[in-house]
Amino acid sequence: MVLKPLIQHCLPPFAVDLVHWALPTVGESTYNEFMARFALIALGILILFFLFRWAFASPSKKADNPDATDMVKDPNCRMYVPKPEAIRKTIQGNELFFCSEKCAEEYRNKQASAR
Ranges for the TRASH domain (predicted)? Predict the structure, then answer.
């Protein structure tokens, strides 16, 4: 008797309606047994799903190459560039990343004219 309100509260309304439609004339004890079995089967399917997902998951590409998806922002044109493809320059003791040599030169010129 406690299971029926609990299941009705936990399941979405369409699932409760489906259960009522499937078992319209059963008694209270049969209904509780059915819902207990339904809950256990659903829980078992969920556990199996996550076990298979974990067992057959492909290894992450990020684990093999952590810099592969890291993006850096060009301070001159504000474009994002993959870190391994970026042009690295050290300007005033700071390591900066640029999309091209042209952007690096423009940035250096802007810094020189700002002084």
Answer: 74-111
